Amino acid sequence: MNWNQNLEKVPQNWQEAQGKNISIAVLDTGIYDPHPDLQGIVSAKQDFTEDAGTAADKLGHGSHMAGIIAGQGSAEEAVGGIAPQASLWIGKVLHESLDPGGDIWLANGIKWAIEQNVDIISLSLGIREDEVSDDLKNSIAQAGALGIKVLAAAGDNAALDNQNMQYPAFLEPCISVGAIVKRMLPRDPDFHPQLGIIAPFANYYSCGAFPDNLYYTEIGSSANTAFMAGILALYLSVQKEAGVDIRNLTNGQVFDALSVASTPLNELTYTNSGTFSFNCYYKPPLV
């Protein structure tokens, strides 16, 4: 079990929900189909890169994110994902070099996710401001208008200044996800004012994409974004089961719900972190 899963008390929350009936688009480097922990969770996949192939993961990053979100934990050395009953839609929008091809592949992936009517879009990636087109902005805005929750990695230096919070996390209506070190204090006390949620900056042990490297660890806001996509899937699953139209939930309502189980940064200490169900440290969104 990942230390952060234990810390976040995810197993206790599995008694209430495991992400059932929640669909998540993972737009990344694709997926390694033969992986034993990724069987039966992929509903559809599409390759948006210039290769236009089978969405095969040639790096491992996308498979790693998919495993964090919904890995089945079926193999002997495996670690289960946060929301093992969620369904994944896999869009390959990155090469193995993590080159996003500008923003065309990403924009097309988001449009596809919208067409698939997913509940969450998870973006463990980033591009420069000068690579952001109106097409990408409009695609993300459309997702938000339809009630799809878009989570995006803020980058590992998002605490520093406006220039170091990567796109599309900087765009509305994305929920930006940052990092916090294992000792439970922020990496930098001066977090970017638009940084929404901070999850553990930890070693996430999850799926790889090669027979001789089926599992590996990764750190940073990319892994945190996948982690938070899983946490959000648990919350939305409970709401959906209760008859709530989750598409009508605003980002503000999501923040409010998660904050009940979280620690505001200005109250975070070494000793109080263990008393919260999720420990997803947050800063309230700007009004």
SSE string: HHEEHEHEHEEEEEHHE
Beta-strand residue fraction: 15-25%
User: Which structural class fits the helix and strand makeup?
Assistant: alpha/beta
The CATH topology turns out to be: Rossmann fold
Spatial strand order of the main sheet: 2-3-1-4-5-6-7-10
- From the alpha-carbon coordinates, what is the Rg to the nearest angstrom? 17 Å
Strand runs, count: 10
Overall structural domain count: 1
* Distance separating the two termini: 38 Å
* Low-confidence region ranges: 159-163, 186-190, 270-287
What are the defining features of this structure?
7 helices, eight-stranded mixed β-sheet, Rossmann fold, disordered C terminus, 287 residues
Can you offer a commentary on this structure?
- By secondary structure, this protein is α/β, with parallel strands linked by helices.
- The chain has a single domain (3-248), classed as Rossmann fold.
- Helix content is 26%, strand content 19%.
- The protein has an 8-stranded mixed beta sheet, sandwiched between helices. Strands 8-9 form a two-stranded antiparallel sheet.
- α3 (61-70) links the parallel β2 and β3 (87-92).
- α3 runs parallel beside α6 and α4 (104-115) runs parallel beside α5 (134-145).
- The longest helix is centred in the last third of the chain and has 21 residues, at 221-241.
- It is globular.
